[in-house]
Structure prediction request, 327 residues.
Amino acid sequence: MRIFSGIQPTGDPHIGNYSGGFRQYARTQEQGEAFFCIVDLHAITVDYDPSELRENTLDIAAMLFATGLDPERSTVFVQSHVAAHAEAAWLLGAMTPYGQLGRMTQFKEKGALQTLVSSALFTYPVLMAGDILLYQTDIVPIGDDQRQHLELCRDIATRFNARFGETFTVPEGVYPEAGARIMDLQEPTKKMSKSFGTEQGKVLMLDDPDAIRRKIKRAVADSGRDVRHDPESKPGISNLIELMTVATDDTIEQVEARFDGHGYGTFKEAVGESLVELLAPIQARYRKLRSDPAELARLLALGAEKARESSAPTLSAMYERMGFATL
Ligand code: AQP
Prediction:
């Protein structure tokens, strides 16, 4: 089985990225041949700082290994190191209806915040489809916010296969049972995000223990004192319950049973401590790796080579079936 997922080097990763991204990557790598991509070409679709992009790319690389990716087992690489991604995006653009791209929620939400709404932000989901399809991917571990883009990717693959003959595996999205959409701690009806929301609204992967405890303590809860999962009427406490499942691997029901009758104060304290425990060893591994840029460069070069090799046959097949005069 082939597994593929990507993460943007757009800022400090948070516990939402861990829940929908990092932890799923480490788990799914056990199930087959896995590819994990730092999608730097996606990061330039909104306003950004070139010097930060370079550093953020290495930060995410170190975090991918620190959260459990094994370079012997998984191919971890940077998107811009494999030219096939940009090429595939152009070819697939010919198979993507303009109207469907205009309906993408993320385009509308992110576009509304930009002074310059780039055409790259508009075509971002086509690049993402190419990322996935180049590797004949069976499953894509992602968070709920990427569901619409994954559906578009499946449509593009199906349309291409029907028009030019069976070329792509049509991938399935894999979403965590709990924690598929971790919400902002201060505004629990909005998703926790690298680029939106306040500092207080997100637990960062590299936050120190006191910051984690403080942010959870001050998280917006709902009226009442029952630790009960009901996202409609209790978005704040439901979000904290989901964070607890992420930190401990318990189910929602187990968390509810354990804190039945304890009240919000005790529960919040326990959530804070569990997150501190989860993140401490990850942070230690991260610091060690991040302080060795030569080793990171070596691992990424290895990943790029493997990714180039694995994506080349699909790109060739695309050119050939689309009727290009190949050499
Ligand atoms: N709040 C979230 N809950 C669960 N999963 C989440 N993911 C993101 N936010 C949450 C998942 O993390 C993976 C990597 O995300 P990304 O870097 O590709 O960008 P994104 O989805 O656009 O997430 P952000 O944090 O909001 O980043 P920016 O602000 O840069 O756009 C994905 O699998 C995503 O689903």
